[in-house]
Amino acid sequence: VLxxxxxxxxxxxxxxxxxxFISHRAHLIMPYHKILDSKREQQPERIKIGTTGRGIGPAYxxxxxxxxxxxxxxxxxxxxKGKLEANINEKNMLFEHIYHDExxxxxxxxxxxxxxxxxxxDYVTDTTVLLNNAIDEGKNLLVExxxxxxxxxxxxxxxxVTSSNPTAGGACTGLGISPLDIDRIIGIVKAYTTRxxxxxxxxxxxxxxxxxxxxxxxxxxxxxxxPRRCGWFDAVVVSYAARINGLSHLAITKLDVLDTLPxxxxxxxxxxxxxxxxxxxxxxxxLENLEPVYETCPGWRQDTSHARFFEELPIEAQNYLNRxxxxxxxxxxxxxxxxxxxxxxxxxxx
Length: 350
Hints:
Blueprint: H1 2-11, E1 22-23, H2 31-42, H3 56-64, H4 77-98, H5 106-120, E2 124-125, H6 127-136, H7 169-175, E3 186-190, E4 193-195, H8 207-217, E5 229-231, E6 233-234, H9 235-245, E7 249-253, E8 263-272, E9 275-277, H10 284-287, E10 291-298, H11 315-328, E11 332-336, E12 344-346
Parallel strand pairs: 1-2, 3-7, 6-8, 7-11
Antiparallel strand pairs: 4-5, 8-9, 8-10, 11-12
Helix pairs in contact: 2-3, 4-5
């Protein structure tokens, strides 16, 4: 997948060399991880998580079992062979006796990954040194996290989560930089709520309206193309994310998707068995059976895609955004009203 992305960029006449750096501590997803991911998701007795099927979960499992293969292991064929033989012997027992599938060829994997190492060798470096040197030199670092708080392995809607910490704290453990070096954290959130895959989505729209918003917003998964589920803005979730991440500002995206709606709803609490929750609960059974508490805002029914300043937005849109900021207790720094660069409204200068 990485080599496909590099090839794609280079075909656009964009130079990758000297601009892409890969940590030599990064763990590798192996062919047997993808097979395991697929097999486990197909097991009828297991909870369906809705993974991408790319082997990420099994790769993380090996990482924490201390049997993972890292890029640095590619540098020595004997080290790689020893670790792979031990891993594959274990995995082959699973494939043969549990999943009744074919065994994996160890030698082929060794050959393929040594060939892979030759292709990426120019990009591999000690990224902790690279980044901390940049910080010492006073350079600006922009760190982007994938996925989101509700998919965090510790703080998300477990077990419907990813295998890592995509919250702000993950930037430090993932990159090897100090928390003291992070001076602002921007939370990116849509003007409504979406989710890919399985798991609770308390404010989810009814099917017909959900299909309508999905088409308006082009809500399909970036990795798999799966249709995203859509719902009203959930201030309980975003308040929780603000607390976990220590958000400095919000960046509200896709405001224009709501342009045609006569009214909008914001979820301000969860009602479950005569109790209203204003803090996000950890109990999965509550999340799956609660009733959202909404407040209604008037829609603006105007095209916002041409606005370039916050004051140019319809007053109803401004009120909607201000109410979100008030409920979440985080100021709004950015609003986007379309996918083009000039459709980004900078509310707060950084």
